[in-house]
Write a structure and sequence with these properties.
mainly beta, 427 residues, Jelly Rolls, 3 helices, globular, 9-stranded antiparallel beta sheet
Length: 427
């Protein structure tokens, strides 16, 4: 067994790594005979003819090819893939407490609960949002998602994510992205783990363009980490799970899929520490649009319109003068699903708790609650550092359809609208 935890840095690079020396071919991808008798396998995350700058694929050199498994059978997992169209989604603003802790042994895959989704896996557009709460590692089982890539956002508890291409530890205030089709499993590093997952059906996440910001700012490529090659030799009665066309399937497998001895390419898992984000903000007046806090974006077919943006609200300085500093009241064409990783969100000092979430769909008005508003308009404006907080937003140009669970579960705060009822008429 060779399971080394090490990383390479950069975003979008063509990486090359081997866990056993002299494995990677030097001059061609598929030599007639691979070193050590390994099999060659390419995994493509984009169409073969995608432009060079967008083309994603990796060459794997493994002990056994991926075709070695039994026939897939469908698995019933209603919370993970609950039909979101069974109940109409109202335009009402919604907010949720954290999902309850499991009472039985529950691993990462079985701890996922779908909260909202949009678009279509068949049309390769849109996304789904899940919360997870688990208390067990994935034992003798592996998973890959054929419907989209996975953005994992831990909120409590660290995760050890083992993939075909290597290992990553991911803690709260970090994120991990598992590309479409890459097999992985999750082991807990603490007794329990809780957080969020975005399943992106559309174009793979990329760094946003910087435009007038210039060369530096937001998330820098050098701060992203992708694993080095690491492999295990394991055999037995194992299970391979797959999400395909909005269903969960399982097949038997007699060996670990983590048998990749070397690989090179750019269709790779990666992690990022959100504390490395270089926050850009106004230094004169008014409030910047949340797009200035975009970490990763999945673009739609319409230039300038995101299939989904992953945006964060980290610790930062507020220095604008003669301005209302929290997010202003607004209605907009985009659809916003928010979560809180730690601390307090400045526009919602109560009710919006770590591990919880809120949803404000297209043209549904939202903004600071009554307490935050009164505090803001009466504040003595001076430079202020907002500390101890980290929130995020998954913003899409398509309406988030709330799942039946999200609409009916006890964790939905039925009194959410009351947070604005203290806003009196001013003349």
């Amino acid at each position: 067994m060779h399971k080394q935890l090490s990383y390479q840095t950069g975003f979008g690079n063509h990486f090359a790594t081997e866990a056993r020396s002299n494995t990677l071919p030097q001059h061609q991808n598929t030599p007639q005979s691979v070193a050590h008798g390994l099999y060659t396998e390419q995994v493509s995350g984009t169409a073969f003819t995608a432009p060079r700058a967008n083309n994603r694929r990796s060459w794997l050199y493994r002990m056994q090819p991926s075709v070695g498994h039994g026939e897939f059978q469908i698995v019933n997992n209603e919370l993970l893939v609950k039909n979101t169209k069974s109940l109409p989604t109202p335009p009402t603003q919604m907010r949720w407490d954290p999902i309850p802790a499991p009472t039985a042994p529950t691993d990462f895959l079985n701890g996922l609960i779908r909260m909202a989704s949009n678009g279509s896996t068949k049309l390769l557009t849109g996304a789904a949002i899940y919360h997870y709460h688990c208390n067990d590692s994935m034992h003798n089982c592996y998973f890959y998602n054929a419907d989209g890539e996975l953005l994992i956002i831990p909120q409590q508890g660290s995760l050890l994510i083992t993939t075909e291409l290597g290992l990553m530890t991911v803690a709260p205030e970090e994120i991990a992205v598992i590309p479409r089709g890459i097999k992985f499993k999750v082991d807990l590093q603490d007794k329990t783990a809780r957080g969020y997952v975005c399943e992106n059906f559309g174009a793979a996440f990329a760094l946003p363009e910087l435009g007038p910001i210039g060369a530096n700012g937001l998330a820098n490529p050098r701060d992203f980490q992708t694993p080095c090659a690491a492999y295990e030799e394991k055999s037995g009665e194992l299970t391979l799970y797959c999400k395909f066309q909005e269903n969960i399937w399982q097949a038997s497998i007699d060996h670990s899929p983590f048998d990749v001895v070397a690989w090179h390419g750019n269709h790779v898992p990666y992690k990022y520490n959100l504390n490395h984000f270089n926050t850009i903000n106004t230094v004169s007046f008014d409030h910047s649009d949340p797009s200035i806090f975009t970490v990763l974006t999945s673009q739609s077919n319409t230039p300038g319109v995101a299939n989904i943006d992953f945006v964060i609200f980290p610790e930062r300085w507020q220095v604008a003068e003669h301005s209302f500093r929290p997010a202003y009241y607004h209605r907009n064409i985009m659809n916003e699903y928010m979560g809180l990783i730690k601390g307090e969100y400045d526009a919602k000092p109560s009710g919006f708790v770590p591990g919880g979430a809120s949803l404000h769909n297209c043209m549904s008005a939202h903004g600071p609650d009554a307490t935050a508003y009164q505090t803001a308009v009466n504040a003595n404006l001076k430079p202020e550092y907002i500390s101890g907080t980290l929130a995020f937003m998954l913003e899409s140009y398509m309406v988030w359809q709330a799942s039946e669970y999200a609409l009916t579960a006890d964790i939905r705060q039925k009194d959410y609208l009351n947070c604005w009822q203290g806003l009196k008429k001013n003349t």
